[in-house]
Specification:
With 382 residues, the protein is mostly helical. The model has no long low-confidence stretch (mean pLDDT 84). The longest helix is centred in the C-terminal third of the chain and has 36 residues, at 346-381. Helix 4 (90-102) packs across helix 14 and helix 9 crosses helix 10 (244-270). 26% of the residues are buried. The chain has four domains: 26-65, no CATH class; 69-105 and 338-382, no CATH class; 114-164, no CATH class; 173-325, MetI-like fold, CATH 1.10.3720. It has helices spanning 2-7, 26-34, 39-65, 90-102, 110-128, 135-155, 173-198, 203-217, 221-230, 244-270, 273-281, 286-301, 303-316, 328-336, 346-381.
């Protein structure tokens, strides 16, 4: 009787789930935990908010609200009674936009550059989409088919009716994309081989890898570019000497591969020793062990550093102008001194357009890497 009476007071259904206290959950809780968790954080938050409140309206006024969006020459961007304090001269960017993208590439052949951009975007999307079908075919397309297709489109092959276009006419965003893509695609596999060579037990291989890595990392990129531009033709007959852009591509790829080798070596060192021993216990040969067991873990661990190296390489492509190559930044330098567009705001607008382009590309790479990193971390926890 007593037991029955006691069980009458027991809950038979789950209690209703209540929201967290307002001070610990939702927007207020997030603000307290991240922005106002201490006196120091509160002071820094207020300073940052004050700076944003002062800077953002000024930037919006200059680059958006008071900006000049149309015009045929400098007169549109000069002060006038209707616009006494003109903002950014986006009309300058609009008029020179094709030059910023193609450089001196012949106007009637620019459809080939557009097709190259489409083919490159398709290959990147195929590999970047982790759930895409037949990514093995996508890898073959990106690393084998795309380079051949790009050469045929951009340089031309008269035998198939595509007129030759020397690399001296290439320029702008086209050159920046080509240099960055070649540097990224070549530096990762070459850096992996150099990292493995540095850890090799064969003295000659290890000596070569260490010497190459330390020498390249010990000099600035601009020095490597000058060496590739001046010294590389000395090692081949004059008629086989590569063009100036090809020399820069070789210099950038070698420079990036040395840094990539150290990044990969750090990932290899982070793999637990037990993984090596387990692979050896299974009887796997050295190269199969590295390809199937060790390298996938090392690349996953060091993925943020790999992407950081790619972003740095993408921005460093602007240094190729020092060896006479018309990259994106060089085209802006050439256009901003045009007397038809000489205004106090022309240079600022051109550099702002360049900064926006580099920011979008680098932020896109960084965001994608964070997504892949999160996905790999979730898969690792399962």
């Amino acid at each position: 009787m007593t037991a029955t009476a006691n069980t009458a007071y027991l809950r038979t259904t789950p209690a209703e789930r209540l929201p967290p206290p307002a001070a610990h959950g939702g927007l207020v809780g997030w603000l307290r935990a991240n922005l106002f968790s201490s006196l120091g954080n509160t002071v820094l938050t207020l300073i940052c908010v004050g700076f944003i409140a002062w800077a953002v309206p000024q930037l919006l006024r200059f680059f958006v609200f008071d900006a000049v969006w149309s015009g045929a020459d400098r007169d549109a961007c000069l002060a006038s009674p209707a616009n006494p304090e003109p903002g950014a001269c986006w009309a300058f960017v609009r008029v020179w936009f094709s030059y910023f993208v193609y450089g001196f590439y012949p106007y009637g052949l620019r459809w080939r550059v557009d097709l190259f951009f489409v083919a490159l975007a398709f290959g990147i999307a195929w590999l970047a989409w982790l759930s895409a079908p037949r990514r093995d075919i996508g890898a073959v397309y990106f690393f084998i088919v795309l380079p051949i297709l790009s050469y045929v489109l951009l340089s031309g092959v008269p035998l198939i009716g595509l007129a030759s276009v020397p690399t001296s006419l290439w320029g702008g965003i086209l050159v920046t994309i080509v240099v960055a893509t070649v540097g990224i695609v070549v530096s990762l596999p070459l850096g992996i081989f150099l990292a493995l060579g540095r850890r090799s037990k064969i003295p000659v291989v290890k000596l070569f890898a260490v010497t190459f890595i330390e020498f390249v990392r010990g000099v600035p990129l601009i020095t490597v570019l000058f060496m590739a531009s001046v010294m590389l033709p000395l090692f081949v007959p004059e008629r086989f000497a590569p063009e100036k852009l090809v020399r820069a591509l070789i210099g950038v790829a070698l420079f990036a591969s040395a840094y990539m080798a150290e990044v990969v070596r750090g990932g290899l060192a982070a793999v637990p020793r037990g993984q090596y021993e387990a692979a050896q216990a299974l009887g796997l040969p050295h190269w199969r062990m590295m390809a199937l067991i060790i390298l996938p873990q090392a690349l996953r661990v060091t993925l943020p550093n790999i992407v950081n190296t790619f972003i740095a390489l993408f921005k460093d492509t602007s240094l190729v102008f020092a060896v006479g190559i018309f990259d994106f930044l060089r085209t802006i330098e050439a256009a901003r001194v045009d007397p038809r567009w000489a205004t106090p705001v022309t240079s600022v607008t051109g550099y702002a357009f360049a900064a926006l382009f580099y920011f979008i590309c680098c932020y896109g790479m960084s965001s994608y890497a964070r997504g892949v990193e999160s996905r790999l971390a979730r898969a690792h926890r399962r």
